[in-house]
Amino acid sequence: MTAGKQRLLVIGNGMAGARTVEEIIKRDGSSLFEITMIGDEPYGNYNRIMLSHVLSGETTVDDEDLILNPMSWYSDNGVTLHVGDRAVSLDRFSKTVVCESGRSVDYDVLIIATGSNTFFPNMDGLRESDGRLARGVFGFRTIADTNGMLQMAQSHDDVCAVVIGGGLLGLEAAYGLRTQGLDVNVVHSPGHLMNQQLDERGGRLLRNKIESLGVGVHTSRRTTSVLRSEDGVVTGVGFNDGTSLAADMVVVTAGIRPSVDFARAGGLVIERGIVVDDQLRCEDEGSIYAVGECCQHRGEVYGLVAPLWEQAVVLADVLTGANPSAAYHGSRLTTKLKVAGVDVASMGITAPERDDDEFVQFYEPRSGTYKSVIVRNNKLVGATLLGDISKANFLTQAFDEKVPLPDERISMLFDMGTPSAATGAAELADDVQVCNCNGVTKGAIVSCVHAGAKNLSDVTAKTRAGKGCGSCKGLVKDIIACAAGGAVEADPTADWYVPCIPMTKPELLDAVRTQDLRAVSQVFTALATDGLEDAAAKMPLASLLRTVWGPDWVDERGALFINDRVHANIQRDGTFSVVPQMKGGVTTPDQLRKIADVADKYHVPLVKVTGGQRIDLLGIKKEDLPKVWGDLDMPSGFAYGKSMRTVKTCVGSDFCRFGLGDSTALGIALEERFQGLETPAKLKLAVAGCPRNCSEALCKDFGVVSVGEDKWEIYVGGAAGAHIRKGDLLATVTGSEEVLTLAGRFIQHYRENAQWLERTYAWVPRLGLEELQSVLIDDRDGIVAGLDERMQASVDGYVDPWQDRTAPKSPAQFTPSLPLLPLPQVPVR
């Protein structure tokens, strides 16, 4: 221990605990405390609000908007972090905390920030005999929950899900699963959705919006059981009226409960949460504090992030002495967010409670708009906005009694004398919270601009405003413009391929070629700012180098994701799936026998026909992968990487009585030519033998449809997953050779110009169909010959990655590695 410093221990590395430490460090707390944190998840601090974006496919668990404090942040700020461990016992007299791993940590000041847990109602079939959740049952609280749902959704076709709970979290879960292509039903005990934030009319309108997404809604239904087959597989849910609903997956979002087991075992005063005073000090304690969702202040327990930020500021002021008299007096809750794509703002009560309450409503189901305000004694005590939330900023100020109410109450809902959306940014008070997700005020944004921030990216990086649900980004941009005295500067980093290298993708490709850079480390050294590595840039750079150099790139194992290192798709339990190639979906009895023999030999727990007309062997151990590939004696099907995947085909003209062209033969030719090609994101193809489109070619990245007389329509930029989009008709060509040629040009142009993880359904409309036709068909820029040449070089350099079985890239490539460290098993709470 450093002389003169106290030992500050924080139990919990979630949003409240980490934010409190951030506020302490801002107040020079590092000179006062040696800070230690204990977190039971094996990550740095992340934004739980963003998990719904991960589930819907809008972002990934590696996205910098999700990770609030990466592991490097702790070491950079002198914070000792113990991850993957859980505090289990507290000795208040010796001031010691013992963890599940046996680790003992002493403290002088203790902050408990254990947050909350998913509330699982008592239902038959919910759990296994050992207390674990049944297979196919999930909460929606952690990265592990989210990954589990995604893996089940992506590894099984025709999965149907039931979400129990129609509040904010439940609707976000339903929306995310729906965008993954699942059939989803929401079950809610109360009579209308989001009953905590909306009245009955608002809930009815929201229901219409949710049902328009293809999600079933069942209100006034109480779930009493999870139905399971004899082997424990989830088959549905049962209700109190004796009816049931089929389901393969059950997601429970029936609320949260403060996590107080650690505090209760230590003898602290517990009611609904850990009881604290106005300085967040635990009752009858001098050196123990609690913050966030685990604590109870003046009888209230808060489940939104805004109160957490307010508590963190007060506690940091108290502990550092920056303001010893700082006090938390509770929070007036205002919520502005996007629920399943629908804008919602809510504050105060949702319905009048007294006879003399003034109640103004506007309800327009056709446009999906609902607005209401409740005024009592000339004060705004409640407001609800759904669909059109342009007046949310004014209402927030009125709710906080910072602006007077207009005599015409209807003008609180429409621009009739109150500040318009355009002028609202300038008229907002400095202490108005703009970003509820991260607790950022207008004043903080203005100060950031005055300190030198010039654009939205700068402000977001420094304040985190807009890094949560993203609904406030427009307002943040308006505030920046006001503070800067004009328009927001263009963000110079917006077009960079990776954040650490100030180059667009074409510029980066040119530099890689001219400087002969063949390893990711070489690219960092030569081109990155100050030559510094960026972990998030490794995968996109590795993909780019493989695009340029093919087999001649320098393979640095640390630059690759686990799927790319072992050429298989990692599953939830650490095993892998193997998908052998079946060109065009065509197989033989010999191949089928080999697959069956391998499934028997290696005790494969699940053999599954995929949506891409392939057979998936799930549950293969890492060390068995080379032997499985050898026994199969079939090439890789590339179901695991950011690459050209499969070509789906219909029966075609040989057997189908409607077939106009040999779709099977053309599909096989496409797959043989472009197999395994590195691409910015996964690339799916299909060929249909007639406009009936049985192979779904109209909604693929590259789809081909026969229209007779050896003519083929080529569609690009289609999607039928997280996003639904019919492809654009790029051209109609004659003969299969023309299809192959144009496919090669399109794919190569996409490889060289799309951003990392940018699917064609985003890239094609971004460039524009006419632009693509001018470049690829009319050869306006004279680049077609180069595209053809570079594509041919990539095709010539193809090597089946499953040949690694005979010469592994490293000694550890196929050795068991999971779990990476012996993590304690945290019981379900």
TrEMBL record:
Pathway: Nitrogen metabolism; nitrate reduction (assimilation)
Catalytic activities: hydrogen sulfide + 6 oxidized [2Fe-2S]-[ferredoxin] + 3 H2O = sulfite + 6 reduced [2Fe-2S]-[ferredoxin] + 7 H(+)
Broadest EC class assigned to this enzyme: oxidoreductase
Keyword 4Fe-4S annotated: yes
NADH-rubredoxin oxidoreductase C-terminal domain span: 335-402
Residue stretches making up the Nitrite/Sulfite reductase ferredoxin-like domain: 570-633
InterPro entries xrefs: BFD-like_2Fe2S-bd_dom, BFD-like_2Fe2S-bd_dom_sf, FAD/NAD-bd_sf, FAD/NAD-binding_dom, FAD/NAD-linked_Rdtase_dimer_sf, NasD-like, NiRdtase/SiRdtase_haem-b_fer, Nit/Sulf_reduc_fer-like_dom_sf
Domain BFD-like [2Fe-2S]-binding: 434-481
Residues of the Nitrite/sulphite reductase 4Fe-4S domain: 641-776
Pfam families according to UniProt: Fer2_BFD, NIR_SIR, NIR_SIR_ferr, Pyr_redox_2, Rubredoxin_C
Record EC number: 1.8.7.1
Keywords for this protein: 2Fe-2S, 4Fe-4S, FAD, Flavoprotein, Heme, Iron, Iron-sulfur, Metal-binding, Nitrate assimilation, Oxidoreductase, Thioether bond
UniProt entry tagged with the keyword Heme: yes
Cofactor: [4Fe-4S] cluster; FAD; siroheme; [2Fe-2S] cluster
Top-level taxon of the source organism: Bacteria
Every FAD/NAD(P)-binding domain range: 7-298
Protein role: Catalyzes the reduction of sulfite to sulfide, a step in the biosynthesis of sulfur-containing amino acids and cofactors.
Family in the record: Belongs to the nitrite and sulfite reductase 4Fe-4S domain family.
PANTHER family hit by this protein: NITRITE REDUCTASE (NADH) LARGE SUBUNIT (PTHR43809)
Designated name of the protein: assimilatory sulfite reductase (ferredoxin)
Organism: Rhodococcoides yunnanense
Gene name of the record: nirB
